[in-house]
Request: fold
Amino acid sequence: MIVGVLNQKGGVGKTTIAVNLASCFAQAGCRVLLVDADPQASALAWSSAREAEPAFVVVGMAKPTLHREIPALAKNYDVVVIDGAPRVNELARAAILASDMVLIPVQPSPYDVWAATETVQLIREARIYRENLRSAFVINRKITNTAIGRDFASALDQFPDTPALDVALIQRVIYAESAAQGLSVLESAPRSEAAREMKRLAELVFPRHERQAA
Ligand SMILES: Nc1ncnc2c1ncn2[C@@H]1O[C@H](COP(=O)(O)OP(=O)(O)OP(=O)(O)O)[C@@H](O)[C@H]1O
Ligand SMILES: [Mg+2]
Reply:
């Protein structure tokens, strides 16, 4: 299973979701590879900040040919998570072509909905070659008890080929605090709501019964 976490918009939570998803799958016993496809190398920086033993392998591959290299690498893993780069179309295209499923993090703001069009369009182009490519929005940094937080999912209905997953990641300081130590929220706060919502996301992306069958 190859999951791309992609959005041409910067700062929406791609790296946060990629490292935490990778950690969920690793904790569940999967062999996990995290591909840092961003020249900013944030996922690599996350893993260098870490004192603990690595929980999974992180490699840097910010190049437009990565879709040709990932399939051979993926053979040795149960799950590959790709942390995408913002803005660069060639890198996004390659990451989309490499993926079985693309997750698009969006924050509950009209700016994020407008900007999502670009990534959805790249996915539509990739479906010409990859008919079975799946895509889904992940609402990130939702602020609880706000009208926009409640009503936001319907704003994404304009993209019928990319549903919003039935989970929202809440705005929580623990995400940045854990990242500072190169940890996932599952490691730094295993019983937290953040860990619970990340595990729910992992289950929606690659359900346990499918992992066992793979
Ligand atoms: N659910 C959340 N709650 C609080 N802070 C968050 C959450 N998700 C992400 N952040 C913070 O938002 C900032 C941007 O997140 P992140 O780096 O994951 O985005 P990105 O899409 O990878 O950015 P870039 O496009 O630059 O690669 C970071 O400071 C991160 O800690
Ligand atoms: Mg990033």
Remarks:
- Residues 2-204 form a domain with the Rossmann fold fold (CATH 3.40.50.300).
- The chain has a mean pLDDT of 96.
- Strands lie at 2-5, 32-36, 57-60, 79-83, 101-106, 134-142, 164-170.
